[in-house]
Design goal:
12% of the residues are buried. The radius of gyration is 16 Å and the shape is globular. It is built from four helices and three strands, in the order αβααββα. Helix content is 61%, strand content 17%. A three-stranded antiparallel sheet has the order 1-3-2. The chain is α+β, with helices and mostly antiparallel strands.
Length: 109
């Protein structure tokens, strides 16, 4: 079994939670999302973020607006919707439950 592949899959599983959490703090530009996810070592390949953002938009969990840029093309800024806030709360509850369950198992000797 390939450990790197397993680690990547674990990160991908948490990517949606992390992206929604970052966006929930306030409007965010895609490169800022990538930077924070990269620094936290959650995202390995940038190409995984764009399809996720499209799925979140299609599911009415996030929305975006175009902002003109003085130094190039317009930028897309993402924000969370009310439905996205509810969804994130449920994901956060699920994550907390999974963390507790995992710790209960992995801390046993």
């Amino acid at each position: 079994m390939n450990i790197a592949n397993t680690q990547i899959q674990m990160r991908k599983g948490l990517l949606e939670l992390c992206v929604l959490h970052i966006i929930s703090r306030g409007e965010v530009y895609t490169s800022d999302l990538i930077e924070e996810l990269t620094q936290a070592q959650i995202i390995v390949v940038e190409g995984t973020l764009y399809p996720l953002l499209n799925r979140l938009k299609s599911s009415d969990l996030v929305q975006y607006r175009w902002v003109e840029s003085e130094s190039g093309p317009p930028r897309k800024y993402y924000s969370i919707t009310d439905h996205g806030k509810e969804f994130l709360e449920t994901l956060q509850d699920t994550w907390n439950s999974l963390m507790n369950s995992t710790q209960a198992i992995t801390q046993k000797k």
